[in-house]
Amino acid sequence: ADAIAFTGAHQAGIVTPAQDRLHFVAFDVVTKDRARLVRMLKDWTAAAARLTAGRDAGEIGAVGGILEAPPDDTGEAIGLPASGLTLTVGFGPTLFRDAAGKDRFGIAAQRPAALVDLPHFPGDLIEAPISGGDICVQACANDPQVAVHAIRNLARIGMGVVTVRWSQLGFGRTSSTTRDQATPRNMFGFKDGTANLKAEETDLLRDHLWVQPGDGPAWMTGGAYVVTRKVRMLIETWDRTSLGEQEDIIGRTKGSGAPLGRADEFDEPDLEAKRPDGEPVIAIDSHVRLAHPTQNSNARMLRRGYNFVDGSDGLGRLNAGLFFIGYQRDPRTAFVPVQLNLARHDAMNEYVRHVSSGIFACPPGVTGASDYWGSTLF
Ligand code: HEM
To answer: Is the ipTM of this complex over 0.85?
Structure first.
């Protein structure tokens, strides 16, 4: 009952009601052999179809095989249900051409213009070893063990073809992606996802999320581009900031999540409203104003991020933050201009550090048993 359909026009894990847990992985492709890469993508697809149905990664299973061979499933999800698992694949810029400009797999001409190399944004502290990657897989589930099990088994199946470049665990989704989900909170304690694109808003999803025919190479039609940003939060500094200042930085009240000056969470922010002293009610450098579509040529995206705490940093601070995930039809007109606006002006910048960055082209959904991840590209 808690299994989410793997096949469909679009990949699951994008407008799917955001699950509670994340394991996001980026792989480097280590083979030069296109046929081996395609073979692995087919094997991954078959495994993903089984895993999302709550089954073992392989046909034989964790304990069904001979004693002389390693099992085709690692076993730690035995007895666990599907737990709403979704697996979403994407292809990074470096899959198309390597750093020397070489067409690695005969697909360089298929690289969409929208799959840009993200620029350096002001203040960026991006660490290369935890950024980029040739292929990403986003695993979301309501049980962390199920999400980790899925990524582990894909890495195992990919041995010799891909290596894990970096991966990120997340908990406590920071965005609702459907109207009937209550808005969760991020590590700043604020509701996150209020003004997000929602699954029910099909006209907006067509205009701002799904790649449309004619947007670029046909293989991406029905897909979406994902941008990931690991944003470290300086929570100890934040926690010494007054409630009023916290609310001014976000532009919303901490309790209900209503825009400052309005009553309800889902009221539209009034960016024109002035206080008696003539200052704007929603500050000029507040996050909500700077990220608002009206300040960014109507840019919208579907945010699907997660909180993280990667232990502590040895200096008495929690290594905490937000793993931002944003899906969109074209990063050139959505993430890039919005993040440029935020990087330049956002009062929140004093409390956050962007340490990892990724961009991937997520193809449309697989249509049935004979289809596979990347079939429209290869
Ligand atoms: C809105 C927090 C990073 C884009 C919000 C809201 C909060 C928030 C609390 C208001 C509630 C909502 O509508 O969801 C944060 C935190 C971040 C972060 C804590 C980093 C640690 C980003 C980044 C982007 C972004 C990197 C994209 C470049 C947006 C957008 C909105 C928003 C588009 C909706 C604005 C509107 O239409 O009112 N964010 N955010 N945020 N954020 Fe962020």
So the answer is: yes
Tell me how far the alpha carbon of residue 338 lies from the centroid of ligand 1, in angstroms: 10
User: What residue's CA is closest to ligand 1, atom 22?
Assistant: 324
Q: Determine which residue's CA is closest to atom 4 belonging to ligand 1.
A: 291
Q: Check: CB of residue 116 under 8 Å from CB of residue 332.
A: yes
Global pTM value:
0.97
User: Residue 156 CB: number of other CB atoms within 10 A?
Assistant: 16
What is the full per-residue pLDDT of the chain (378 aa) written as tens digits? 599 999 999 999 999 999 999 999 999 999 999 999 999 999 999 999 999 999 999 999 999 999 999 999 999 999 999 999 999 999 999 999 999 999 999 999 999 999 999 999 999 999 999 999 999 999 999 999 999 999 999 999 999 999 999 999 999 887 777 878 889 999 999 999 999 999 999 999 999 999 999 999 999 999 999 999 999 999 999 999 999 999 999 999 999 999 999 999 999 999 999 999 999 999 999 999 999 999 999 999 999 999 999 999 999 999 999 999 999 999 999 999 999 999 999 999 999 999 999 999 999 999 999 999 999 999
- What spatial distance separates the first Cα and last Cα of the chain, rounded to whole Å? 34
Nearest atom in ligand 1 to the alpha carbon of residue 335 is 28
R_g of the chain, CA atoms, integer Å = 21
